[in-house]
Write a structure and sequence with these properties.
Elements lengths: L5 E5 L4 H14 L4 E6 L6 H14 L4 E3 L4 H13 L16 H8 L8 H9 L9 H22 L3 E4 L16 E5 L2 E4 L7 H10 L24 H8 L2 H17 L23 H8 L1 H9 L29
Parallel strand pairs: 1-2, 1-4, 2-3, 4-6
Antiparallel strand pairs: 5-6
Helix pairs in contact: 1-7, 5-9, 8-11, 10-11
Length: about 325
């Protein structure tokens, strides 16, 4: 490796990380670059196909990371089975798992091999804009653990190339080009001052196509993402396998929940209120996937209020490490 360092590119399958990968290969040679993809298990099929396209076109191998929650799920099973707590929570609900809820949860609480689903089974819920544990557990922590292991095992400095641009959002407007993260661990953001036009030009100038999702959804990421707009949901509604998968996941995660219900898009608060302020029947009927499909089919502009408080950057997902789609 040049300068004795290992150069890792955080690859999401999106335009920015693809352009970053191309720059790394241009400067260092493909044999000196290690592209790494953190697989949530909830990626769009087009993204998986695009990674294979990059591998074939560039003559590279993409390392795919998939976190394993089987140990944590085994501990959760034991906790649920032995739960004998007393008292109630701040809303007055009993803290202890009822025997009925225990039987229901233990029937599905087992590792499926899909990181996103396993994490939701473990949590007994799906991520929301207020509790976006998917990015932390499935992308950031998995990637950092991999880099730390590489440093420990290979004993060399690691330079992580990140596809982050300052004009993407307010949170990234002060992003540094080079940053020391820890001992032998550095972040390098070569396109930090690029425009989106320069990114697409870079990909085209290398004779490559961008991820085809830009022609439909307009961005790359989970399918669906918890921040999907009405338009996104309408487009995904035409993909029966994705909708059926969400419907099945809601059933499984609902069974693993103490409440017995779960909704992928719970954070939208379409009932005009929060859980507990209307009956469970009303809330879950409106927020589970079939209710969401009905909402998305209705005419009308996307309203920010559908999201609650999504943060300074509005309703979109992302990662400070550039590991999510863009």
């Amino acid at each position: 490796m040049k300068n004795g360092a290992l150069h890792i590119v955080g690859l999401s399958g999106g335009k920015d990380s693809t352009a970053t990968l191309l720059l790394a290969i241009d400067r260092l040679g493909r044999e000196n670059v290690r592209p790494v993809f953190a697989d949530t298990g909830n990626e769009h099929p087009e993204t998986y196909a695009y990674l294979e396209y990059l591998e074939e076109s560039l003559g590279i191998h993409v390392v795919r990371l998939k976190p394993d929650f089987s140990e944590e799920i085994a501990k959760k099973r034991m906790f649920v089975a032995r739960d004998r707590r007393r008292g109630r929570d701040k809303r007055g609900d009993k803290i202890r798992w009822s025997n009925k809820a225990k039987r229901r949860a233990l029937a599905v609480l087992q590792s499926t091999g899909n990181p996103f689903l396993d994490l939701c089974l473990l949590k007994g819920r799906f991520p929301t804009n207020r509790a976006r544990f998917c990015t932390e557990w499935l992308k950031r922590d998995t990637f950092v653990e991999y880099v730390d292991n590489v440093i420990q095992q290979e004993g060399r400095p690691v330079v992580v190339w990140q596809g982050i641009r300052r004009d993407e959002s307010d949170k990234r407007k002060n992003a540094k080009k080079i940053e020391r993260v820890g001992h032998k661990y550095y972040n390098f953001r070569p396109i930090v001052d690029w425009t989106v036009e320069e990114v697409f030009w870079c990909i085209a100038s290398h004779g490559l196509d961008p991820n085809p999702l830009y022609a439909t959804l307009g961005r790359v990421g989970c399918a669906p993402c918890i921040y999907a707009t009405k338009g996104d949901v309408r487009l995904l509604a035409g993909s029966n396998p994705i909708i059926e998968r969400v419907r099945d996941w809601e059933r499984l995660v609902g069974q693993a929940s103490k409440k017995g219900f779960a909704a992928f898009f719970q954070g939208k608060e379409l009932a005009g209120t929060k859980p507990g302020e209307v009956s469970d029947l009303v809330f879950w009927e409106r927020h589970q996937i079939d209710g969401i499909l009905t909402w998305a089919a209705k005419a009308g502009p996307f309203m920010k209020e559908d999201w609650g408080h999504a943060g300074d950057d509005g309703p979109r997902c992302g990662s400070e490490m550039g590991l999510c789609g863009d």
